[in-house]
UniProtKB/TrEMBL annotation:
Belongs to the ABC transporter superfamily. Pfam families: ABC_tran. SUPFAM superfamilies: P-loop containing nucleoside triphosphate hydrolases. Residues 6-238 form the ABC transporter domain. The lineage of its organism: Bacteria, Bacillati, Actinomycetota, Actinomycetes, Micrococcales. The keyword Transport applies. It comes from Microbacterium panaciterrae. Keywords: Amino-acid transport, ATP-binding, Nucleotide-binding, Transport. InterPro entries: AAA+_ATPase, ABC_transporter-like_ATP-bd, ABC_transporter-like_CS, BCAA_Transport_ATP-bd_LivF, P-loop_NTPase. GO terms for molecular function: ATP binding. It comes from the Bacteria. This is ABC transporter ATP-binding protein.
Length: 239
């Protein structure tokens, strides 16, 4: 079994005095995808914000590479945690290449290292290479989502956190984005993916975790998850 990158145990977090997440646990391993599912308002984004240091952890632990994280958000990026927030928009009036170069900004890389990173992104997402000189606004929603992911990859993360990359995309494009995300596993990257597209995301997942009202109610290996249990947890027993 591959190395554990992220281990969240009994997480409690929220906004100021408001506790939204009461007991969330999940694991992400290198070269694997963990999908975090749950209805609107269940606490998925809030969980991601605690993992990335944007929200305060008030109980439980967030361990990354065996160390409990307490440092601020920007230091977590430097440690290899990249986060593509929900509805993340690229810089529409900049070219694809300029968008990618901005993604590498946080790493203070040499020009040569930056160029090498950009080339790697073009290998992963050939469409970005083909359109490198065009402005981002000229691309489709799915391509812009891939650019947003490419931008996050420019920081050379070990753990990539994606909040609903399929949002607002047509079903056929959702499948394509999921395929591309799935391909990232071969680079050894661990991915924590929050999704509403249940079937498509479970199809590429190694681990699945479901949150209901701030608590993890179902988790396990994707191959062993019973879809009926998943439906019940996800739809609160109405499926
Ligand atoms: P969605 O799919 O709608 O994004 P989610 O599972 O990601 O759902 P969260 O965004 O984590 O849910 O929200 C969980 C709860 O926290 C909701 O009740 C929401 O109203 C509340 N919440 C979110 N952001 C804030 C905030 N900035 N201040 C106070 N409460 C918030």
């Amino acid at each position: 079994m591959s190395d554990v990158l992220l281990e969240v145990a009994g997480l409690k977090t929220g906004y100021g005095d408001l506790t939204v997440v009461r007991d969330v646990s999940l694991t992400v391993r290198a070269g694997e995808i963990t999908v975090l599912l749950g209805r609107n308002g269940a606490g998925k984004t809030t969980t991601l914000r605690a993992i990335t240091g944007l929200n305060k952890v008030s109980g439980g632990t967030v361990d990354y590479l065996g160390e409990t994280l307490t440092d601020p958000s920007h230091k977590r990026v430097a440690k290899g945690i990249s986060y593509v927030q929900e509805g993340k928009r690229v810089f529409r009036e900049l070219t694809i290449e300029q968008n990618l170069l901005l993604g590498g900004f946080s790493r203070r890389m040499s020009k040569r290292a930056l160029a090498a990173s950009v080339d790697e992104i073009y290998q992963l997402f050939p469409i970005l290479g083909t359109k490198r000189a065009l402005i981002a606004a000229s691309m489709s929603g799915g391509q812009q989502q891939m650019l947003a992911i490419g931008q996050a990859l420019m920081a050379r993360p070990k753990l990539l956190i994606l909040d609903e990359p399929s949002q607002g995309l047509a079903p056929v494009i959702v499948k394509e984005v999921m395929e591309r995300v799935s391909e990232l596993k071969s680079t050894g990257l661990g991915v924590l993916l929050v999704e509403q597209a249940v079937q498509d995301s479970v199809a590429i997942a190694d681990q699945v975790s479901v949150i209901e009202m701030g608590r993890t109610t179902l988790h396990g290996a994707a191959a062993e998850i019973n879809m009926d249990d998943l439906q019940r947890a996800y739809f609160g027993g109405t499926a």
